[in-house]
């Protein structure tokens, strides 16, 4: 059975091009298009689509307002269609917090030709969305992370600045990373993160996380010393690597060819952690479509790292964690709300000092 898609966009050109892209795929079809959310509301009732593509900025009702109402009254997989601008990226981050599964960006120039170049990307995101576990969410505020770190597990007086936490994610990962980082105490080990995300959005993502978390979160610039209490997110245009310079861990970024069709790639980060940190690294693989990160996490395990994978029930898309688990790369599997405590508990037992929460 084909994936039924409803396109909501005020641009007739975008509706036409998106329809052409989607209908060219053998496993999906556009059942209807709508120029605004008010029309879309009736079409949802009529066609019961599997996936909705939703423009961020539209007349009559803002895309975010519509999304919030939709996720509260009739949760369903939504892929946002966003402008590649600072305002567009900030709105898209809020849409993901409200429950959108993923997003694609409109090209800045030559929209018709540019959108056709995105055929594989758009199709993959719709397929992932169709498989996603959709949950209604509310916008987070600082200090409102779900769950709690088991403080009794974090009482080891031994000090070590060697330990690092290495995180990879894709579809659904922006919210998973937020939930994970919001439970990190201010003196946790340095954290390196690769999240599949286009250029221009990682900076807004990092800025948003920095405002919510106890730790400092920033988009990696390259050649930075990796410090405790800091998280470094791969920029959307480059791979992120962990390197070593004397006694210090450092970040490195470059625009080498995509790996597993991704740049940044989780495999690239994980492999660099295996080489630079070995047993001092703790790997975490979160929700995501595909298998990027599985092979790199296995290299981390073979180099002495200890690894965690998100479980199926708490994943938006159980792709990347499933692949890592299947090849024996993960030592432990846990729900998203439990993973911060599991990671910090392991670190407390292996050379980390008491962590202040």
From TrEMBL:
It catalyses: L-glutaminyl-[protein] + H2O = L-glutamyl-[protein] + NH4(+); [protein]-L-glutamate 5-O-methyl ester + H2O = L-glutamyl-[protein] + methanol + H(+). Its EC number is 3.1.1.61, 3.5.1.44. The keyword tRNA processing does not apply. Pfam families: CheB_methylest, Response_reg. GO terms for cellular component: cytoplasm. Keywords: Chemotaxis, Cytoplasm, Hydrolase, Phosphoprotein. Transmembrane segments: none annotated. It is found in: Cytoplasm. Phosphorylated by CheA. Phosphorylation of the N-terminal regulatory domain activates the methylesterase activity. SMART domains: REC (SM00448). The modification 4-aspartylphosphate is found at residue 55. GO terms for molecular function: phosphorelay response regulator activity; protein-glutamate methylesterase activity; protein-glutamine glutaminase activity. HAMAP family: CheB_chemtxs (MF_00099). Contains a C-terminal catalytic domain, and an N-terminal region which modulates catalytic activity. Belongs to the CheB family. This is Protein-glutamate methylesterase/protein-glutamine glutaminase. It comes from Duganella phyllosphaerae.
């Amino acid at each position: 059975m084909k994936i039924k898609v409803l396109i909501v966009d005020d641009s007739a050109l975008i509706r036409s091009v998106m329809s052409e892209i989607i209908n060219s795929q053998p496993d999906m079809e556009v059942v209807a298009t709508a120029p605004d959310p008010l029309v879309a509301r009736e079409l949802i009732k009529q066609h019961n689509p599997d996936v909705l593509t939703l423009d961020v900025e539209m007349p009559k009702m803002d895309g975010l307002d519509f999304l919030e109402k939709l996720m509260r009254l009739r949760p369903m997989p939504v892929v946002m269609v966003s402008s590649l601008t600072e305002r567009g990226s900030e709105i898209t981050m809020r849409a993901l917090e409200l429950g959108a599964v993923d997003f694609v960006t409109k090209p800045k120039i030559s929209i018709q030709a540019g959108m056709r170049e995105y055929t594989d990307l758009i199709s993959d995101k719709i397929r992932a969305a169709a498989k996603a576990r959709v949950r209604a969410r509310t916008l987070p505020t600082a200090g409102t992370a779900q769950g709690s770190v088991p403080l009794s597990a974090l009482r080891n007086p031994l000090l070590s600045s060697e330990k690092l936490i290495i995180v990879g994610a894709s579809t659904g990962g922006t919210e998973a990373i937020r939930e994970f980082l919001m439970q990190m105490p201010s003196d946790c080990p340095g954290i390196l993160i690769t999240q599949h995300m286009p250029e221009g959005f990682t900076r807004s993502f990092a800025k948003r996380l920095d405002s919510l978390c106890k730790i400092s979160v920033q988009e990696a610039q390259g050649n930075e010393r990796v410090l405790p209490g800091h998280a470094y997110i791969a920029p959307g245009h480059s791979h992120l690597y962990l390197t070593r310079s004397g006694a210090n861990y450092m970040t490195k970024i470059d625009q080498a060819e995509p790996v597993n069709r991704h740049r940044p790639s989780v495999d690239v980060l994980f492999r660099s952690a295996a080489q630079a940190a070995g047993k001092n690294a703790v790997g975490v693989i979160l929700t995501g479509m595909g298998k990027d990160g599985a092979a790199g996490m296995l290299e981390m395990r073979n180099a002495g790292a200890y690894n965690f994978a998100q479980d199926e029930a708490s994943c938006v898309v159980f792709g990347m964690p499933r692949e890592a688990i299947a090849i024996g790369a993960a030592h432990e599997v846990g729900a998203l709300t439990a993973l911060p405590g599991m990671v910090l508990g392991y670190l407390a037992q292996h050379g980390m000092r008491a962590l202040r929460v």
